[in-house]
Amino acid sequence: MSAREKLVNGFRHVPYQAENFSLEEMLKRSEEYYKWLDKRRSVRHFSNKAVPREVIENIIRTAGTAPSGAHKQPWKFCVVSGSDLKKKIRKAAEQEEKENYSGRMSERWLEDLAPLGTDENKEFLEMAPWLIVVFKEVYGLDEKGEKYNNYYVNESVGIACGMLISAIHNAGLVTLTHTPSPMNFLAELLERPANERAFLLLPVGYAAEDALVPDIHRKQLDEISKFYK
Ligand code: IYR
């Protein structure tokens, strides 16, 4: 054990190596990171240009660095690249979306979506070279098949998805958070175990050269924050 290591409740704790920046550098980095992430957009028009598997692996590794309740890491990133499976997913998603857009969603909801220009057609599910289907583990299963508890599963998986999305942006690729509802068909098509529920579906690839995004704007700092003394 190194000098600064210690046991807490019998578990090893090791030194945290903080990265230290000057105030000037900190300010610059925080501003640059914001400006760079602010360029991210949900893109629905993909190129079918190939993206190396190693890139997708690194993006998933990045998502796997997310904090999680009791460090249970209650996520599974299922990756689809084959055209047959993509076609099946598209077909099932479009079937659900058709019902959503033509009855299940309220008038108000449809009005709210109008600026985004979405509809039941999900071409991106076949066009994008990769589909990442994120599953949450509502409970865990150990090597012996025994159940164990997970905690704050939605929060944990939501944070991991945020990190996934920023890693996709960092690679110069695009995605969108697709939530076909209900999503049960994904667990069936991907033959997931009983403890997993589909959480989010993210197509990943290059943006189409002629991709358009809605001209919508983000809330300003004073709208999304309130500072207290
Ligand atoms: N899940 C549908 C509808 C949809 C819902 C919301 I809230 C959006 O921000 C976008 C779409 C779909 O994917 O089309």
From TrEMBL:
Signal peptide: none annotated. Gene3D superfamilies: NADH Oxidase. Residues 38-206 form the Nitroreductase domain. Coiled coil: none annotated. InterPro entries: Nitroreductase, Nitroreductase-like, Nitroreductase/BluB. It holds the Pfam family Nitroreductase. One of its GO terms (molecular function) is oxidoreductase activity. Keywords: Flavoprotein, FMN, Oxidoreductase. This is Nitroreductase family protein. The lineage of its organism: Bacteria, Pseudomonadati, Bacteroidota, Flavobacteriia, Flavobacteriales.
